[in-house]
Design goal:
about 190 residues; alpha/beta; two-stranded parallel sheet; two-stranded antiparallel ribbon
């Protein structure tokens, strides 16, 4: 059976499963159907120009939906999605979703009150540090960040995601150096 024949089967099955109310629902139903038909195989979906069929809000919802799935997706689009970027470190795939999953544990370990904007900035710097390390040990230096809070957030992200790192604590107060040592010596 060729591709267009399979697509027609999928379309017929989708009509019997639900009556989509939006282009987004139609697309996600189609993805679910194809994935369920081939769940014993590794699925990689290619979505071309979804902005031609979805509103900006639906496009953002699609990206959120796809990030929660256990298959790979390639989206070719002319618009910026400003969403998760995957990067590899020693064959380990990392992205914002993985970093966000560390937030609860990080909040309980921080020596100060959680701050979403500092966490967002730390995630960006973490991504640059790890991605630019070219799979070598990451060097986190206090001089490369704006303040001690960002440094601590990045340190915790490195520690919790098990990325090999070295710390340059030059310029950090003894109180924070003691805190960092206690985290490293614990079994979090």
């Amino acid at each position: 059976m060729n591709y267009s024949g399979k697509k027609e089967i999928v379309k017929k099955k989708l009509v019997t499963i639900s009556h989509p109310t939006s282009s987004l629902e139609s697309l996600t139903n189609e993805i679910k159907m194809i994935h369920s038909m081939y769940k014993n195989k590794k699925n990689i979906f290619l979505i071309l120009a979804p902005e031609n069929h979805l509103t900006k809000s639906e496009l953002e919802d699609l990206v959120v939906y796809l990030n929660k799935q256990n298959f790979q997706v390639i989206i070719v689009t002319a618009v910026s999605l400003d969403q998760t970027v995957n990067f590899k470190y020693n064959n380990k795939v990392l992205n914002e979703v993985i970093l966000d999953k560390q937030s609860n544990k990080m909040a309980s370990l921080l020596p100060f009150v959680w701050n979403n904007s500092i966490f967002a900035e730390a995630k960006n710097l973490y991504t640059k540090l790890v991605d630019n390390s070219h799979e070598k040990t990451v060097l986190l230096s206090y001089g490369t960040v704006d303040n001690i809070e960002i440094y601590i957030y990045i340190f915790l992200l490195l520690y919790l995601t098990k990325i090999p790192f070295r710390l340059d604590t030059t310029g950090i107060s003894e109180q924070y150096q003691t805190y960092i040592d206690s985290i490293i010596n614990s079994r979090v």
